[in-house]
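Renewal narrative, Specific Aim 1. Our central claim is that a sequence can be written position by position from structural information alone. The example that follows is taken directly from our test logs and has not been curated for this report. It begins with the structure tokens describing the chain, in the order in which they were read.
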């Protein structure tokens, strides 16, 4: 793969992207391509600029990835004659990949198959499904109490979504590694698990079903294996919610987690310019991460009047020049083969677009960060069959990763107790989990600037959120939060020595250091601000526009120097020379001018026939509404039988919530709607896995 590859992240302020890569050639519809050996096939394709992976059989519409996590079916391709999900299939050199629309040659129905072999079985004390923060911490706790643990995960590496996070985590330093980058926390937890001989780790081994008799089906080493645990812990995380609007199924409309997987895990650069939908922590963080990867962010839109994520995350992107449009929604995405333009509009108090308020942005990508749903299918099946089952992390309650770590530890103690061990769940654990689960409080007035001294920090933590790293690293213990809690704003109560440690560790980049000691005349001051963007964006001697706490222009400053070093953990500290009267106001540096968008011109009306609800079967909102109105049914199974919603490979994961919204629109309480009957398997299992021949064509 040559230097300067346009679809790869080649420089990043946090991740190492340089160095030799083991490459492998493959073909896509007879076109020779080169990818990185063992990376997800979907990433290899997008890394070559392939955005359209196929065309839908119903109307020929282009298909592209959406979740990159195996939860949908947008990335289906045919590998060596076998239909697979590209996001779950590792690249092997020599693969012959074809789009589903290219009429691939499939094996004949009477193709020779190996004779069935015996089904492998494993007996274990506890089966933990999911290698994210909850599953990993639970496995460690169980192993430390002498329990035989089997941990399985469908990915090649452990860590779950932690491996996708470039930011320093909030929470408690002593309890959940606060102040450390999420990707590094994932590696720490993986090392802890692999250091426990009592934990049997199975990667690329999805759990696919729970069956009567107390067994769990796991596809391990390409073979269906029956695991018989005394207890099952489901820590499978969450799946992203979809949002239906005209054009929402176009290639280039991704879930935010899919974008993180492409960029932060596989170093793919699938976009040049994007727009983010959703102002929770996920949306705010992914907008920031896009900028880190060198991708422009046109804007972030949020339906509610205020963003639901931490204000420090919002302020970070505002200071860089990304507009945050609250009380706005997406009206439509426009494009032929992929997204080319997106139209947004202001909404009224009922969330309805206001005619005449539309603005258009030329982008090639729309990132959806509109919420998460627990992946709890296995847990529900286990409860139905009577297996002793527990859930933890996002599979139980959607929350931050720091909460998931505590959730794993606490549930592990509950399992130990139910297995007959005399253990307690420490009340301090429960209290800390509840603290870290609290939603951010309202934005408060900034603290007053300290009385004039030579050097002092400006603390812009304006919400009470669980976070204590700055208080832990201060050598004079001059930063404090209310005693007995980690939920509170830090205050300066003692002398500041200008050591910069608080700036280096603050997860919200919410602290700057003002230094008046270098100018006796009092005309100029030095302000040090944290910086996590690409190094080439700033040079010593450069004039820059400084911004305030919410991105408002403050004035010009000069870059004196950029501090880097191992102790800063990939963060840079930029020392600026600014007019002394402005020093206390400077919170950041503007990278780009905010884009107000353009008038979209004449727009066609938004018609429900243009809104695809079921991606797998391409069923429109108009079709579903007409059926519900005509039949008066309150049963999702009837919708499935009549319209095929939920019949596709995703099993209804992306369309069920959209259909429930339609029930609500028609005055039907979703709680009275009969849910769909679940499939025996929670995801596809190749027939060869039951025959002992492995998953042919997928690298298993």
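The sequence written for that structure reads:
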């Amino acid at each position: 793969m040559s230097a300067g590859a346009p679809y790869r992240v080649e420089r990043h302020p946090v991740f190492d992207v340089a160095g030799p890569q083991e490459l492998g050639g493959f073909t896509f519809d007879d076109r020779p391509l080169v990818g990185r050996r063992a990376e997800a096939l979907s990433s290899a394709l997008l890394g070559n600029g392939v955005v359209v992976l196929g065309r839908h059989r119903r109307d020929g519409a282009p298909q592209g990835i959406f979740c990159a996590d195996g939860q949908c079916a947008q990335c289906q391709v045919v590998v060596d004659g076998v239909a697979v999900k590209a996001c779950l299939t590792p690249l092997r050199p020599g693969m012959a990949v074809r789009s589903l629309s290219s009429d691939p040659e499939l094996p004949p129905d009477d193709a020779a198959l190996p004779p069935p072999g015996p089904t492998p079985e494993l007996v274990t004390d506890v089966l933990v499904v999911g290698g994210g923060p909850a599953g990993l911490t639970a496995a460690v706790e169980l192993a430390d109490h002498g329990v035989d643990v089997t941990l399985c995960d469908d990915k090649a590496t452990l860590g779950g979504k932690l491996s996708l996070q470039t930011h320093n985590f909030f929470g408690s330093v002593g309890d959940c590694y606060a102040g450390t980058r999420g990707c590094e926390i994932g590696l720490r937890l993986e090392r802890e698990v692999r250091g426990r001989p009592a934990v049997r780790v199975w990667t690329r081994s999805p759990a696919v079903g729970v069956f009567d008799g107390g067994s769990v089906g796991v596809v391990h080493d390409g073979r269906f294996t029956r695991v018989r645990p005394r207890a099952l812990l489901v820590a499978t995380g969450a799946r992203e919610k979809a949002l239906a609007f005209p054009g929402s199924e176009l290639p280039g409309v991704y879930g935010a987690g899919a974008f993180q997987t492409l960029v932060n895990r596989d170093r793919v650069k699938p976009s040049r310019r994007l727009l983010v939908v959703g102002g929770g922590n996920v949306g705010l963080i992914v907008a920031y991460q896009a900028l880190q990867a060198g991708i422009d962010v046109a804007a972030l839109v949020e339906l509610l009047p205020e963003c639901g994520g931490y204000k420090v995350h919002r302020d970070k992107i505002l200071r860089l020049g990304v507009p945050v449009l609250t009380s706005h929604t997406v009206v439509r995405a426009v494009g032929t083969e992929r997204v080319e333009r997106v139209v947004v509009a202001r909404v009224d108090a009922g969330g309805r677009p206001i005619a005449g308020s539309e603005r258009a942005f030329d982008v090639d990508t729309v990132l959806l960060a509109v919420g998460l749903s627990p992946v709890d299918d296995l847990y529900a099946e286990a409860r139905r069959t009577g297996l002793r089952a527990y859930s933890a992390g996002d599979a139980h309650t959607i929350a931050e990763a720091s909460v998931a770590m505590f959730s794993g530890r606490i549930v592990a103690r509950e399992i130990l107790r139910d297995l007959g061990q005399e253990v307690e769940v420490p009340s301090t654990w429960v209290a800390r989990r509840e603290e870290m689960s609290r939603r951010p409080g309202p934005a408060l007035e900034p603290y007053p600037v300290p009385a004039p001294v030579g050097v002092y920090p400006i603390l812009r933590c304006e919400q009470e959120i669980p976070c204590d790293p700055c208080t832990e690293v201060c050598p004079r213990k001059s930063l404090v939060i209310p005693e007995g809690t980690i939920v509170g704003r830090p205050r300066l109560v003692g002398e500041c020595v200008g050591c910069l440690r608080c700036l280096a560790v603050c997860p919200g980049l919410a602290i700057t250091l003002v230094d008046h000691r270098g100018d006796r005349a009092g005309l100029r001051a030095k302000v040090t601000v944290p910086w996590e963007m690409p190094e080439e964006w700033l040079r010593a001697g450069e004039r820059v526009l400084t911004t305030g706490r919410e991105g408002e222009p403050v004035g010009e400053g000069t870059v004196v120097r950029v501090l880097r070093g191992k102790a800063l953990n990939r963060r840079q500290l930029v020392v600026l020379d600014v007019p002394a009267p402005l020093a206390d106001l400077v919170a950041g540096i503007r990278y780009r001018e905010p884009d107000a968008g353009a008038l979209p011109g004449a727009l066609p009306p938004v018609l429900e026939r243009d809104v695809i609800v079921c991606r797998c079967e391409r069923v429109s909102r108009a079709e579903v509404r007409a059926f519900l109105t005509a039949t008066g049914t309150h049963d999702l199974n009837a919708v499935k039988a009549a319209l095929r919603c939920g019949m596709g490979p995703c099993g209804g994961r992306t369309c069920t919530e959209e259909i429930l919204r339609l029930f609500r629109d028609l005055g039907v309480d979703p709680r009275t709607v009969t849910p769909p009957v679940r499939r025996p398997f929670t995801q596809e299992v190749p027939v060869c896995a039951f025959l002992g021949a492995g998953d042919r064509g997928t690298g298993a």
